[in-house]
Amino acid sequence: MKIFVPTSAHPSKNSTLNKIVRNIVKNLKTFDSVYCIWFLYQPERLKTSKDSDEMIVDIHDYENAVQVLQDAKPDCVITNNNKHATIDFAFSLAAKFLNIPLIYCKIVDFTDLENPKKLTQIKDNFKRNVRKFVLKDPSTNQLHGSFIMFKNKFLFETKKKVEQNTIGNIKSQLGSQIFHFIGNNPENRFSDLADLNLVNNKMWFDVFKKCGIRDDKMVVTGNPYWDEYFQIIRQSDRSKKPIQRKPIKILILTTPLVEHGHWTEKQRDKIISNFMKILSDEQEFSFSFKIHPTSENLDTYRNYIKKMNVESEIYQNELFWDIIGNFDVVLSYGFSMIHTEIALLGCRMILFRFKQDDFREMPLVDSAINSGFIQECNKFDELPLLIKKLSERKIEFNQNYNDEVEKYFYKFDGNSGMRAAEAIHKFLKKS
User: What is the CATH number of the domain that holds 81?
Assistant: First the structure.
């Protein structure tokens, strides 16, 4: 079985999509041999490779998605259902044009997409995308905008290849960009092109159904991304007692808000500098950083430490789940899926709030806040006392928290990857 997967992160990286696909592939191998073709799209040209189990191809060697799939000849294409994800949508169109089975897997668990965007949200989204367009990629020092144009050209050439009218092509391209800049309502975002949709939970089933996707094209599997965490959580002591040791070990979990166009560098400098000053003034605290594995620049944080003249370790490539056991409290900010992971793990966390943030929109975070082991804060000088009080709390889970685990994560049993593999195997065997 040859599976084709477009990805923006190298297969060796633990991106959400990569982890989902690797879990599914592992379970598919119980039915058949599997060969995975990773289509990598990054601003810089990367080295391609090929071995007995997989190969990596690079976007810079191709003009359009039809050309890629004609060369690869996969048995199916697995990608994300998002018309605004330029490369994913290009391969959706190409797969349908070439009659290659197309499978969508849902990557995130957000559930508020049915709500129309307010004017303030539309303005914020527009500013974020404009800012992102002119930012530089820290790994390549190239403008994000130049690669955005490159990806749009790839989609445009794909649409030409699938025999779309040129004028219609231009209109649809412009329309897609406009909707991308102003909002993310489901009717503008999700496609019904796939032959099979792997759906995270019953709520997403209902969202897709309202978007015109037929029931017989959807299978609720749970999200394979969470399977390995089920084993970790099951083996961990989630009724954690108050922290007794000193110093209290704090992990500052950063989010790439600058790199993704949400913040300016000045905004990030202010919050990181304040965190470091306040925490370093307290002898009862020690702190380290966990920065984004691919989007953030390690030297940026080395410079912070050097400038402040403090002792602090920086983790980047290490998995969060491998290091969190060494820390007592997580301090974070922004809007990230990792906050849901922390809530699921049952770890003490303080989320520093800015006026535009609403952490409670993240799955399970609201229930964790109500359970008391995640706290919100919006004043720097309140952090020390809040950290001390939080470390003294025993972690407990209320009934609403337990209900939401089932709501967001379907059958949280570690078997989502197998259910997805069974659905794919059955579908491909039938087709």
Answer: 3.40.50
